[in-house]
Design goal:
214 residues; YaeB-like fold; four-stranded antiparallel sheet
């Protein structure tokens, strides 16, 4: 079953109603080589999500594209945790991959998780060394920058090295061994709303989603 070319229909609508906006979207699409990277396997929802997030400074486009290139086998390294398949409705059957947008929220979220996991290695080392020497030592002012640097930069690097950096989500489907990019969303977005957007547009473009989203 052939899908509906919503990208062309909606972009043609923009061209008639708002030529300036149409030109911006087309230039954006071409500049970031979306068609080339994905072989046209992206929805109008994905394109507009990406475009409007970029124009409102909510996204690092290169970080996002790096993760897509990784999923497409065009990039060897990923900067975030492994892709995961949704196992429960309403998104059961779809996949998501994190992309790190560099925002304060994502930084604090990753830092919080890193500190829970690794705690304060440099400070703990100081304690262990004092115990081993049988000495009572006090934290000096000169020690504080090292402790803080290890707590922040050190822990974030440990999380990167472990491939555990989290971020916002690329939502996609896999069909016949190929990825189809459906949209971008945040952790806080209700999954019911994500599903509603997919049902309204992506299912029309990619009819095989009806079988995946049973």
């Amino acid at each position: 079953m052939t899908g509906i070319d919503l990208k062309s229909l909606i972009l043609n609508g923009f061209e008639k109603q708002d030529p300036e906006m149409h030109s911006k979207i087309i230039n954006f699409q071409n500049f970031f080589k979306l068609s080339e990277i994905t072989d046209e396997r992206y929805s109008i929802t994905f394109l507009l999500d990406f475009f409007f997030k970029f124009n409102s400074n909510q996204i690092n486009p290169w970080a996002l594209l790096n993760e897509i290139k990784f999923l497409e086998g065009r990039e060897l390294l990923t900067r975030t945790k492994a892709a995961t398949k949704f196992k429960r409705p309403p998104l059961k059957g779809l996949w998501h991959k994190h992309y790190y947008d560099g925002s304060i929220n994502m930084l604090t979220n990753n830092l919080s998780n890193a500190i829970k996991k690794y705690q304060l290695p440099y400070f703990q080392q100081m304690i262990d060394e004092a115990k081993a020497a049988g000495e009572e030592r006090f934290v000096q002012i000169a020690d504080i920058p090292h402790i803080v640097n290890d707590a922040v930069s050190g822990n974030l690097q440990r999380r990167r090295d472990a491939g555990k950096i989290t971020g916002e989500w690329i939502i996609y489907a896999i069909h016949d061994g190929k990825n189809y990019y459906l949209g971008l969303c945040e952790h806080s977005d209700p999954q019911e709303e994500i599903r509603r957007k997919i049902d309204m547009t992506c299912v029309l473009e990619f009819p095989f989603l009806e079988e995946i989203l049973l």
